[in-house]
Amino acid sequence: xxxxxxxxVILCDVKLPDANGVDLVKKLRETAPAWEVILLTAYGNxxxxxxxxxQGAFDYITKGNDNDKIxxxxxxxxxxxxxxxxxxxxxxxxxxxxxxxTILGQSAALRRLVDLARKVAATGATxxxxxxxxxxxxxxxxxxxxxxxxxxxxxxxxxCSTFSRELLESELFGHAKGAFTGALKDxxxxxxxxxxxTLLLDEIGEMPLDLQAKLLRVLETSxxxxxxxxxxxxxxxxxIAATNKDLKAESEQQRFRPDLYFRLNVFALQLPPLRExxxxxxxxxxxxxxxxxxxxxxxxxxxxxxFLAALQAYHWPGNVRxxxxxxxxxxxxxxxxxxxxxxxxxxxxxxxxxxxxPSAFSLNSAEKLQIQKVLNHxxxxxxxxxxxxxxxxxTLYRKIDEYGL
Length: 405
Hints:
This protein has 16 helices and ten strands. By secondary structure, it is an alpha/beta fold. It is extended, with a radius of gyration of 30 Å. The relative contact order is 0.08.
């Protein structure tokens, strides 16, 4: 009778013609866990009441003065179902926001990386994310968490470079009340908060060696000790570590524990810098322009070919984070006019000769852009740039002078 229908609250009598309401609660909760069931009876007794609540009933009440009892009870039950729906919608939105589908880019390097991340997400294995600052390591960590079996649990992130050694231990493992000056109450650490979920340790290469030993113990035994306590506590979580350092080289130099490095390096993903995936710049530009225009309550602005060409030629030491900041600045300066290269900081400028109309589609512009990319790649080494471009060094100098590079 109830199949195919949706309810927030069900009022049910205990004595039914063909069933017992207390027994029916269990079946209803199994069929539709989101429904709240209020049981009514003229002959209330404690055993039935206890069993009804154990079966999942919202409440069990005796009849009499029904309006005074039932109406407020229905309101509370509806509030509970509404809150549950809001939480479910929020979790769905969070899942959509941090899914692999939201990682923008069409370069082969990024697509390969996403494919590898999808495969490891399903396994629960420890992941080591490496790459320059601003390449999106936390974005990948979130996506791995959301695609894994722990997606319904906590995702917590701790940046190991932002705390002193003492504070980092407290943030990581928690502390007991009175453990040190200012410890006014017990505090859970990130390891405990991540129980059942995922812990991202960003900039793990900055973690002091003695704390690395304690982290290794947690990974091997699932046990940790809060600061100021002696007894161990337990926490089971998936670890994702991120760093812009070469941990292998750091371990060889005794600046990082080799045993922890091997424990972390189960599945390593190297995130390429933005300058090595120029094809991803345009979709990122479109996305950030749309995001910031909505935020600034501007009409959706277009961009000129020279604007995109300048962005694609730049070497992006700050990677995607720098691109995002650059676009926000340009949109502030643009007013409601299309974005052009003149809005970019001086290091982005691509000077052209007077009277020329720069176009991303002209041969000169394409040649200029290619030379700029190669020079960025070789960090200004003109001999190496000439070799990669397969032109003579004298020709390269002439082109650099001609294009004002």
